[in-house]
């Protein structure tokens, strides 16, 4: 067992999917696709004489996240000015929440590799405005203010995470919850969702946490994991060589796979937080909070339990099908067409996902494939009712993946309808047994593995279209007759 333990707390920045910015009517646009500085206004540019107005839809979205994370909702929240100056923040301060956040004291339960669960506490979730985007070129920088002022929810965990793997599980679970709620689409490549990892290490003899560093603006879960692993090793190496760790802000160099110091950390009081004099406190009554709670959709954990109870799925299958909103929607739409729940789960997880993985498609992209849930349901029903066998069904699925055709059309065109005519099966079995006397004798003398070979020959004689259950029964009967 290692003498060192990795200690991680995560800060997650999630843009809220509103039409306008956090404190003005300026539209929110795709910060990657839209031309630079095409969605700015006086407030985005920090011009004097402007007054912010709270976007209450963004507040409602933030409150939904807080409730989904089991947070307490204080009677009021308050905006503050967080003072610092960078070119992407022209006002010289960011409007955020400090002493009075929107939600506090929540948690996320993550699944562990050993099958257990662990609770990661959520300290707070607070609303703020996003900053602009800097692009560094040579000795200068370009700034795009399209993103400046976009509603941003910051979700801060307690330092309960003990490995990169636990960080991954927390990040994926939180991302899925945001997508289920419809408040963030989780596209990390566009900065819609960003992670910051506070990393420190603790020796087995320590009684308190050591200094931590903060790795900023991680735009993929893979980068999150690798940066945590690298930074923990870097800190351990420093301590074991007699040096110390200085608190600082770090970046992650994806090309070099290492963390780099950006600046040494300011103290919280250096931000000079104070209540924003232009904004009132935001008050939610218990009745208003309860009304928003009633709007929450069925979330992943609850859906997983329902899939297990209602459809008899294993915990593993239910977790996979419930974890991602688009996947669960596809599954339930297929069931609405009358497909068997377990067969649908098996064919999605084993066969459909294999095709998606082959084409480098992620789970949330299932709504972009050529196969509709209704078509998939019809395929599963043909398999369940033994119109086609497993091998034929797999051929049909691959053709559906490529062409988007109806399964019945493919079955007819390829002549894949399963042979269930007993007389034809009896004839095929008899032919195989007569042509393979040595294999028959070997099986009868105790070589049980030969049964599978004989089954394969019978299937081949029926051109792969025979009903496996019927073939197995008739083959068993004919062999028993020869004993």
Protein architecture, described:
The chain folds into three domains: 4-292, no CATH class; 300-414, no CATH class; 422-481, Arc Repressor Mutant, subunit A (Orthogonal Bundle). 40% of the residues lie in helices and 20% in strands. The protein has 15 helices and 15 strands. It has an eight-stranded mixed sheet with strand order 5-6-9-1-10-11-12-13. A three-stranded antiparallel sheet has the order 4-3-14, with no helix packed on it. Strands 2-15 form a two-stranded antiparallel ribbon. Helix 7 (325-336) packs across helix 9 (373-384). It is elongated. 36% of the residues are buried.
Task: Give me some keywords for this one.
single chain; 483 residues; alpha+beta; 3 domains; eight-stranded mixed β-sheet; elongated
Give a brief rundown of this model.
With 483 residues, this protein is an alpha+beta fold.
Estimate percent helicity. Answer: 25-40%
Beta content comes to 15-25%
Q: What are the segments in which pLDDT stays under 50 over at least 5 consecutive residues? A: none
Provide the domain count. 3
Shape: elongated
Strand line-up across the major sheet: 5-6-9-1-10-11-12-13
Q: Please count the beta strands (DSSP E, at least 2 residues each).
A: 15
Mean pLDDT across residues: 92
Radius of gyration: 29 Å
Distance between the amino and carboxyl termini: 59 Å
Major beta sheet summary? 8 strands, mixed
List SSEs in N-to-C order. EHEEEEEEEEHEEHEEEEHHHHHHHHHHHH
Structural class: alpha+beta
Helix segment tally: 15
């Amino acid at each position: 067992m290692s003498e060192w333990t990795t200690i991680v707390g995560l800060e997650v920045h999630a843009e809220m999917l509103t039409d306008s910015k956090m404190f003005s009517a300026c539209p929110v646009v795709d910060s990657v696709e839209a031309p630079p500085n095409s969605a700015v206004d006086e407030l985005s540019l920090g011009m004097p004489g402007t007054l912010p107005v709270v976007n209450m839809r963004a507040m409602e979205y933030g409150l939904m996240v807080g409730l989904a994370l089991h947070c307490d909702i204080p009677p009021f929240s308050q905006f503050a000015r967080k003072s610092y100056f960078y070119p992407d923040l022209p006002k010289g301060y960011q409007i955020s929440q400090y002493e009075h956040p929107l939600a506090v004291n929540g948690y996320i339960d993550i699944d562990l590799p050993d099958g257990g669960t662990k609770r990661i506490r959520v300290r707070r979730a607070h609303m703020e405005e996003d900053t602009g985007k800097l692009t560094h070129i040579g000795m200068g920088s370009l700034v795009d203010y399209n993103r400046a002022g976009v509603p941003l929810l910051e979700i801060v965990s307690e330092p309960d995470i003990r490995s990169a793997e636990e960080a991954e599980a927390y990040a994926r679970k939180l991302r899925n919850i945001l997508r289920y709620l419809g408040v963030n689409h989780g596209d990390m490549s566009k900065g819609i969702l960003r992670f910051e990892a506070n990393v420190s290490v603790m020796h087995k003899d320590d009684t308190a946490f050591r200094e931590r560093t903060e790795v900023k603006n991680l735009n993929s879960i893979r980068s999150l994991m690798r940066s945590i692993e690298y930074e923990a090793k870097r800190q351990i190496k420093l301590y074991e060589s007699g040096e110390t760790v200085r608190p600082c802000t770090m970046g992650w160099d994806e090309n070099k796979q290492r963390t780099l110091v950006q600046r040494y950390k300011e103290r919280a009081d250096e931000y000079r937080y104070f209540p924003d004099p232009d904004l009132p406190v935001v008050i939610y009554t218990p009745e208003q909070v309860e009304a928003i709670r009633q709007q929450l959709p069925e979330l992943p954990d609850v859906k997983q339990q329902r899939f297990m109870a209602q459809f008899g799925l294993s915990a593993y299958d239910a977790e996979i099908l419930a974890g991602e909103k688009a996947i669960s929607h596809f599954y339930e739409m297929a069931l609405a067409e009358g497909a068997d729940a377990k067969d649908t789960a098996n064919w999605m997880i084993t066969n459909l996902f294999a095709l998606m993985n082959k084409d480098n498609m992620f789970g949330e992209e299932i709504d972009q494939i050529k196969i509709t849930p209704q078509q998939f349901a019809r395929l599963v029903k043909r398999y369940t009712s033994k119109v086609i066998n497993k091998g034929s069904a797999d051929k049909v699925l691959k053709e559906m993946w490529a062409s988007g055709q109806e399964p019945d059309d493919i079955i007819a065109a390829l002549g894949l309808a399963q042979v269930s005519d007993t007389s034809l099966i009896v004839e095929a079995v008899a032919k195989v047994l007569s042509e393979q006397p040595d294999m028959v004798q070997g099986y009868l003398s105790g070589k049980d593995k030969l049964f599978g070979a004989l089954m394969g020959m019978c299937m081949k004689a029926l051109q792969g279209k025979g009903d496996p259950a019927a073939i197995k029964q008739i083959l068993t009967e004919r062999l028993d007759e020869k004993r």
